[in-house]
Amino acid sequence: MLYQLLYPLHTSYSAFNVFRYITFRTLLAGLTALVISLVLGPALIRWLTSMKVGQQIRDDGPESHLSKAGTPTMGGMLILFSGLLSTLLLADLGNVYVWLVLLTTVGFGAIGFVDDYQKLRGRSSKGLSVRAKFSLQVLIAAVVSGLLAASPDFTTTVNFPLLKNVQPDLGWWYVPFAAFVIVGMSNAVNLTDGLDGLAIGPVTIAAGTCGIFAYVAGNARFADYLQIQYVAGAGELMVFCGAFVAAGLGFLWFNAYPAQMFMGDVGSLPLGAALAVVALVAKQSLVLPILGGVFVIEALSVIFQVGSFKTRGKRIFKMAPIHHHFELLGWPEPVIIVRAWIIAVVCAILALATLKLR
What we know:
14 helices; mainly alpha
């Protein structure tokens, strides 16, 4: 919005020429999102508290979590509002990829909002049914994937990390592939959101890394130098990523242990889905398991736990997702959180290394 209003003025006032640079608008979007989230955070906590929007704790969860009952939830609205507003203000709204990632964020955010609302209305830890939630996720992911595959100048090829000449074209099979990536990443982040700051830390790290992926893929010279596929217009998603990195940090100010508010599904579902879309546009979807290593570990711990119990009648972990297992082993909550952040940083470094190691 501001980009469309201010950049044309550069012909009369040269100072406005700075708006042509994606890096400048990314930094400005990040600063804007951070200020908005820090300013509105206390007001949102007070409002959620007055509305009695308190977290419902799982009956079978660790006993240490019982003291968290009643902590305001649905704080993900703060991330979405500050991140989306900053993106709308400073991204090029003529870019189709920007609108696709915005559609994904709003769509999955709506699913999370309804799910959180159902939990609060029912005063339980159960919201939408698994079937309803999954069906809505698949529907939105399929629509976004179809629009992406049909976008002008976008190819349905998939790049393999470390293999520069392996780029199979999936054709319309790209749609179910991309939908699977979006839904999978969304739910993996959702499963990780179980401790104060556990999910938002790795999310901001992954968002910053995805922003770099998008920027180099959208820059012809960088793409040629790194021998990766050039995707015209992909660099604009760096503005979105920058906004959500800062929005996440602003939320973390209030979500750090001991949390003043929780993210809720309204935050975790859209953040995971949005990261997946950025990675798909940047042709780095197969790097996501490396970049999102923390999310993958959390999701696999649930899959293995359920599979083992159904087939053998035995549990692998004391409790799943795996962060609860560590809690029951006696690890203090802050230790689990910070170690997850460290792993997330290592995963981001490994993911970035794949750009050069080809």
